[in-house]
């Protein structure tokens, strides 16, 4: 089985709870993500069938040496299917761009290249969703 390597950002608990409470009212999900595990996936680094302990250590070391600027992230586009329920950024996406630009710069300076796979930052808040509610919110 392949392992995925991702850059994640965890929101404060009260924001995670607000996201889960609001989104699960709009979309029926089979399984909701646990509050403590809710995160925004910022970057996709790749997949591998073998352990990538060196990559993980290099990414952690690079990110630990920097503080990313605080920014506002607006999430408001629901995407749901039988696999997952996602909340994506909307509007100008300036907050997401600030975060991704900072992360990309840090990774590039450390010699780490994310996979150029049509990846969009998102929050996965559930699995096995039945589409309902308003789109976008």
List the helices and strands and how they pair.
Elements: E1 3-9, H1 13-26, E2 28-32, E3 40-48, H2 53-64, E4 75-80, E5 84-89, H3 94-109, E6 122-130
Antiparallel strand pairs: 1-3, 2-6, 3-6, 4-5, 5-6
Textual characterization of the structure:
With 137 residues, the chain is α+β, with helices and mostly antiparallel strands. The protein is built from 3 helices and 6 strands, in the order βαββαββαβ. It has helices at residues 13-26, 53-64, 94-109; strands at residues 3-9, 28-32, 40-48, 75-80, 84-89, 122-130. Strands 1, 2, 3, 4, 5 and 6 form a 6-stranded antiparallel sheet that branches. A hairpin with a 3-residue loop joins strand 4 (75-80) and strand 5 (84-89). The longest helix has 16 residues, at 94-109.
Keywords:
single chain, 137 residues, alpha+beta
How helix-rich are the residues, as a percent range?
25-40%
The N- and C-terminal alpha carbons lie at a distance of 35 Å
Write down the Rg: 16 Å
Listing every helix as H and every strand as E from the N terminus to the C terminus, the arrangement reads EHEEHEEHE
**What is the overall number of helices?**
3
How big a fraction of the residues is strand?
Answer: 25-35%
The poorly predicted ranges are none
Silhouette? globular
Structural class by helix and strand composition: alpha+beta
Question: Which assembly state applies to the chains in this document?
Answer: single chain
How many beta-strand elements?
A: 6
Calculate the mean pLDDT score and round it. 82
